[in-house]
Design goal:
seven-stranded mixed beta sheet; alpha/beta; homodimer; Rossmann fold; 16 strands; 2 domains; 334 residues; 25% helix; Quinone Oxidoreductase, Chain A, domain 1
Chain lengths: 334, 334
């Protein structure tokens, strides 16, 4: 095992869109494993929108990452030394040891992966946190019924690309909103979205949505917020359900944005609007992963990974993801 | 039976706060009852916030009252002639024949009242639509648990005054927001609210709420919306539930108001925000009325009526109610 690990610490609380200089690469001693621990070499790092919310310096649903602390995140790696009988060198594991290229960690904090079942990178995507976010966040909160119209914002991202496919499995009509023409092509041609539009080249979202959703909208899975959600809300049907998964349009604002008040629409249309953090479904995670794996095997769920090579490029990959440069799941290969 | 009935028609779609001239008093022929019908003399008319939403000229959850049409509303009356075996002259009934002082109506559309059980006026309040709005809208949507903190806006109104009492029955800590010092005194001293404040004489709602809700807010029953709800949202706890019953602060606005975006808070705090129209609970109405009547008998639910004398004063009473001049249920005695 190496004597040190490379780690990215938070160097500054970002103002607006994070910069690479908001993170600092350091070398830290890698402790020898205690009994019950293993040493893992990082293979994949996940970069996800939620991370922006963890580096605002303010407590939200969890304590923030403070300046000088290791950046958090989901990770997949390979065991290179083991002092626990449950794991052998060569085994792949998934965990959340953050932005570091090696770690000594208790085996109990890691989940062993079977590379025969699916590529190990999927433990950070379709068979991991983003997959469970899509699966439970959509099915539990939206309760979609066959024939209903579902709109997904951030439709080509790690979560949105799965939500649309799950909605198709549930026999819904599915409309996606994304920010690039190739993303639109991808989600319609490859993933089976019924239709989609590029919000960056569309001026009147309301008119476009009305066109694509002649029967109104019954379920809205929101990754984005802001003016896109404003437009969707005006077309929600009575008793529509909104699953609030992300608000990426708001994460880099330097002062909170005002918008049209939504409570009157929530009242008159008897809407149910619910937010969630995926950890609330932790007890049913295994069941969700089994179902997603089954659908993948049947060819009903596809996924795409955008992989950035090189541990040192993790901050750049994170920033690119926040700017919507990825299609599907954004990963770093260490 | 008289040959005619007096009726208030909508004369104009109100701009901002309705004026008396937005309604027109006319005399219309009162048809003789067909078989199965009865003639009823109106005794009480209900004026309620929801009526403002019905006269905007725009379809919401129901078709609007058009100019020239009879104004809608709940009513209690006494049968003066009957061609149906189920009702006799002298019987009291509740229905929704709108702003008219007599009506010929099918007996099947009316519900007979027992004046021995409760004053017949309560069929328009605690044992009627406002009572069921409070009962189901609070218990079903907020799912309050003992020890939780509940905030009610419009806390001294027909619905809010009942919500607070139901919350106390469920062993919650209950904070009310209302717009007059005598209302504050009433809900704390007579109805048992733990505390309350007058939003018209308070400048910093957030600070006041923080003071009164040291453990944050778990349930919010919203009759008001606008800046009051903005302040409440900032203090909602993780997994808090919001029942959106009314938005009276917004009803008379001539252009929609902007406000802070709420979806980020809904996301991060995993809130559930749900709107409702009381008719959705219609099938369980009898059960709700039985429970409220039982609580009244036990002295655990009190109610107050503000009664305006004279059918011709119905528009004035409606406007006064929209301006918050009532405590408890606003009624007109015809």
């Amino acid at each position: 095992m190496p004597a040190t690990s490379r780690r990215f610490l938070l160097a500054a609380v970002p103002v607006g869109l994070p910069k690479e200089s908001d993170f600092k690469l350091v070398e830290a001693p890698l402790p020898a494993p205690d009994p019950g621990q293993v040493v893992v070499k990082t293979v994949y790092l996940s970069v996800d929108p939620y991370m922006r919310g963890r580096i605002t310096g303010v407590r939200t649903y969890a304590d923030p990452v403070h300046v000088g602390e290791l950046m958090v995140g989901g990770t997949v790696g390979q065991v290179i030394e083991s002092r626990d009988p449950s794991l052998q060198p060569g085994d792949y594991v998934v965990g959340a040891w953050g932005w570091q290229d090696h770690v000594s960690a208790p085996a109990a904090y890691l989940r062993k992966l079977n590379p025969q079942v699916a590529p190990v990178s999927t433990a950070l995507g379709v068979l991991g946190m983003p997959g469970m976010t899509a699966y439970f966040g959509f099915l539990d909160l939206c309760q979609p019924k066959a024939g209903e119209t579902v709109v997904v914002s951030g439709a080509a991202g790690a979560v949105g690309s799965l939500v649309g496919q799950i909605a198709k499995i549930k026999d819904c009509r599915v409309i996606g909103i994304a920010g690039a023409d190739d993303k639109i092509t991808y989600i319609v041609n490859d993933l089976g979205y019924d239709s989609a539009f590029n919000y960056k080249t569309t001026t009147d979202y309301g008119a476009r949505l009305k066109d694509l959703c002649p029967k109104g909208i019954d379920c809205y899975f929101d990754n984005v917020g802001g003016v896109i959600s404003d437009a969707v809300f005006t077309l929600l049907n009575p008793f529509a359900r909104v699953s609030v998964c992300g608000q990426i349009s708001q994460y880099n604002l330097q002062s909170p944005e005002q918008g049209p008040r939504l409570l009157s629409q929530i009242l008159v249309k008897q809407l149910k609007v619910e937010g969630f953090i995926v950890t609330r479904f932790q007890e049913r995670w295994a069941q969700g992963i089994a179902q997603m794996a089954q659908w993948m095997k049947e060819g009903r769920i596809k996924y795409h990974e955008d992989i950035v090579e090189g541990f040192e490029n993790t901050p750049r990959a994170f920033i690119d993801m926040l700017e919507g440069k990825n299609t599907g799941k954004m990963l770093v290969k260490a």
